[in-house]
Amino acid sequence: MKKTLTIVSIMIMLPTLLWAGEGPTLRKSNFHLGAELQTKYIWRGIEMIPENSSPVLFPTIGFEAGGLNISASGGYALLGNFAELDLSLSYTLGWVTLGLNDYFTPSVDSPDDSYFHYGRGTGHGIEGFVTIEPQKVPVYFSFATLFAGDDWQPAGKRAYSTYAELGGHYDFLDNNSLSLAVGATFNPSCYNDFL
Q1: Residuewise pLDDT in 10s, the chain (195 residues)
Q2: What is the DSSP string of the chain?
Q3: Which of 19, 28, 42, 104 is the most buried (most CB within 10 A)?
């Protein structure tokens, strides 16, 4: 027991001993990790798991260099009744960002739930988007359309579900921010149950 306690103590103190006198040198990384916990999963005004709702964990990993941003994030209900994997690729030039999102939300019992199945009945929704965000004004406008994957009208035509959002933020006290956004859809789509 003493031997284990000594080894654990040395492992805890080792970074302090190595940095003694000069302190650690930190540098900014192009990679980022994150995790978010939400009590309910609301996406663009839609509650994603309305029955048996549970808290959802969203882990994220990403890479950013210049204007390029690549990320992968998941959504996992703590009760196990929902899972999602999202991939995103975008490029920002000045105040305009263009990008693609692949939202993968498999059902619990479909034979088409293979990640690499992109045909009709797939769990994928592939979207193109543009975001305009002036650099000197704290507002943005975003416009996104699903153009591939599982986005079909009941009559069998592609829906091209489209969503637009206007938002802004107010930054205060170092790293704090207050945000407000308003979203809308313009056509019969997955956002309004094809009404």
Answers
A1: 455 444 545 555 555 555 555 656 777 889 999 999 988 888 887 887 777 778 889 999 999 999 999 999 998 888 877 888 999 999 999 999 999 999 998 776 666 667 777 777 788 889 999 999 998 889 999 999 999 888 888 888 888 999 999 999 888 888 888 999 999 998 888 888 776
A2: -HHHHHHHHHHHHHHHHHHTTT-------SEEEEEEEESS-EETTEES--TT---EEEEEEEEEETTEEEEEEEEEETTSS-EEEEEEEEEEETTEEEEEEEEE---SS-TT--TT--STT-SEEEEEEEEE--SSSSEEEEEEEEEEES-B-TTSSB---EEEEEEEEEEETTTEEEEEEEEEE-SSSTTTTT-
A3: 104
Q: Which of 40, 50, 34 is nearest to 193 (CA)?
A: 50
pTM, to two decimals: 0.76
Q: Which of these, 73, 84, 79, 102, lies nearest to 48 by C-alpha position?
A: 84
Q: Which residues contact 85 (CB under 8 A, 6 or more apart)?
A: 72, 73, 74, 75, 104, 115
